[in-house]
Structure formats: C-alpha cells, structure tokens
Specification:
Layout: H1 3-24, E1 32-36, H2 43-59, E2 63-67, H3 74-81, E3 89-94, H4 95-104, E4 116-125, E5 128-131, H5 140-149, E6 155-158, H6 164-176, E7 181-184, H7 188-196, E8 202-205, H8 207-215, E9 220-224, E10 250-257, H9 262-276, H10 279-286, E11 291-292, H11 297-318
Parallel strand pairs: 1-2, 1-3, 6-7, 6-8
Antiparallel strand pairs: 3-10, 4-10, 4-11, 5-8, 5-9
Helix pairs in contact: 2-9, 4-11, 6-11
C-alpha cells in the first residue's frame, strides 16, 4: 500500500472509529428531558419531579422537567411523539393522555401506541367516590338505588370533560345501568366547592382532597375505585365489591418516542425500578393511598392497550366525544 493510500484509508477510518466510540458511550451521556403534559404543581408534575431527581442522582446527569400543559395533555404528547428516538426525551404518560384521549377524540396529533414505546408503569392511585351528607348516600348500592328511583336527577361533578373523574362516573353508569348527570367544572377545586355546598350529589377525587372533608364530616367516603381496598384506607370499601369489573385508576408511567433502542428502554426501565423502591420514594407515594407498581415495558404496553379499549367502550356507550 502506497503512503498516500495509507493516509487516505486512515482518514476514512476516523469517522467510523469515532462513531463506534459514540455508540459504546454509556447512556445517558448528557442531560435528559422529561416532558410533562400538564402545568407545574399537579400530581403529574409531582411524580415527574420525584422520579427526575432520583434518576439524575443515579445517572449523574441532569433530568430536566419540561412542563407543556394544554389541550388535555395533547400539546405535550405531540411534542414528545415527534422528539428524536434516542432516549434523551422521556414522556410522563398517564391514564388521560395515553388511554382516555384516544377514546374521546376522533383525531389526535399523536397515536398513543404507534408513536410511543412503553418503558415502565410507576404509580397508580385510587379515586374516592364521595357524596354530600344531605343526599344520605353512604354505600354504592344506595347510590345505585337512588339513581334508579330518580333517573337523570342525580348529578356528579368533575374537574372537566374527559378526565378520569368524569370517566369514573360514566363507567359506573355503564356497569350498573343507571343514568346520572355529569357536570363539568373548570378544575377539580370548583367541583369540590359545589359538592361541599350540596349542588351536586357526588364526585370522584383523590384522597388528598377528600380525606380532610370526610374526617370533618363534610363529605361521606363511599368507596375507592381500585379493584381492591387500599391499605391506607382499610375502612373504605371498593366499588368492585358490589359492582363487578369496576376499576378506575389514576396511573402514571414513562414512555419514549417509538423506535427508541430497546437497550435504552430496558436500561431506563431498570433504573426507574430502582428509583421507585427507594424508601423515601415509597413513603412519598404510599402515604396517601397510592401504590408503587413497576413492571416490564411489555406489561405497561398491555395496560395502555386494555385501558384504551375500556374507555372506547365506555365513550361509545355514553356517546362521549370531545372533538
């Protein structure tokens, strides 16, 4: 080989060698963005920030929380779906963005299953079915009986059309054959205000909002929406104890843009599992009745698919569309 040819070959080999070195570089080698499709301060943001802090400590790289709220989570989801599939963009998916939105909107700028790859389910939380004492409804059977005697007269409030609290009420209608009327508010706080005032009969809400009012006698804690009773609330029965197959969970997990390498998905899954089992993280989430879940990417993908099918069926039955 002539000296000139040797030089040419060496020059051509430099990019390939550099590329091989880059590929071998441990992940992550730079900061990671975690997109949250809601404003700062809510439960989604809290979950993201707890996880982000622990992953940052483990990875020795910053995990930057990027709040992109608006349009029932659609804005943040679209942004995440179109991000590079290199592992450096994570997305906090929840029951609304990943499951109920596909059931309620005929057109979305993202496809919950085709545009994302599931990484890990992290936390699921119950909702509490609570009633105003003036309605004298203390159990699910009493609610069903009341609604059947007065069809269309019993109302329930939620923080907005299409949210998990709204769908929890529609699922109860669907499975029991009753007809209660949904009242959509601009947020969970005004919905709770009207419930406390007796303007609506019941609502579904998180334990943090419900428990102080239950203890004060202002509301009646009727049931939790998870399949079984919650360890932190042992005296409150599950709806499913009297309405078989009823289950509504507020859940949170991490997904990434589709075509993200499997090796990165598996690594992030393992690191999330470690982070979510840290004692301080477990304490943070289980103190209010939430549950650390975890699991494989495949099991999370299966949950998303099942929830889309469930809410599509409920939306069809209730003739719900948000377009």
């Amino acid at each position: 080989m002539t000296p000139l040819l040797k030089i040419a070959v060496s020059v051509l080999m430099i990019p390939a060698a550099a590329l091989a070195q880059d590929r071998a570089e441990p992940f992550p080698a730079k900061s990671v963005r975690l997109i949250v499709p809601y404003a700062a301060g809510g439960p989604n943001d809290i979950v993201a920030r707890v996880l982000g802090q622990k992953l940052s400590e483990r990875w020795k790289q910053p995990v930057i929380i990027d709040n992109r709220g608006g349009a029932n989570g659609v804005i943040g989801a679209e942004l995440a779906a179109k991000a590079p599939a290199d592992g450096y963009t994570l997305f906090l998916g929840n029951a609304g963005v990943m499951a109920s939105n596909p059931a309620l909107y005929s057109k979305l700028p993202y496809h919950a299953e085709k545009d994302f790859a599931a990484v890990s389910l992290m936390v699921q939380a119950p909702l509490l079915l609570v009633t105003h004492p003036s309605f004298n409804i203390k159990t699910v059977p009493e609610l069903v009986t009341h609604a059947k005697v007065r069809p269309g007269q019993l109302s329930f409030g939620s923080g907005g059309a299409g949210g998990v609290a709204h769908l929890a009420g529609e699922l109860l209608n669907y499975l029991t054959g009753i007809k209660t009327v949904h009242i959509a508010y601009k947020g969970a706080a005004p919905a709770m205000t009207d419930l406390l005032g007796g303007q609506v009969a019941f609502t579904f809400t998180g334990p943090l909002a419900a428990l102080p009012n239950i203890k004060a006698g202002k509301l009646t804690g009727v049931a939790v929406t998870t399949k079984k009773r919650v360890a932190a609330l042992p005296d409150i029965p599950a709806v499913a104890e009297t309405v078989p197959n009823y289950e509504v969970r507020a859940w949170y997990g991490i997904v990434v843009p589709a075509r993200t390498p499997k090796s990165i998905i598996d690594k992030v899954n393992r690191d999330i599992a470690v982070a979510m089992q840290l004692p301080e993280v477990v304490q943070r989430f289980t103190s209010d009745g939430s549950e650390i879940v975890g699991g494989t990417p495949a099991s999370f993908a299966k949950l998303i698919s099942e929830e889309i099918a469930l809410w599509t069926q409920v939306a069809k039955q209730a003739q719900l569309r948000l377009d």
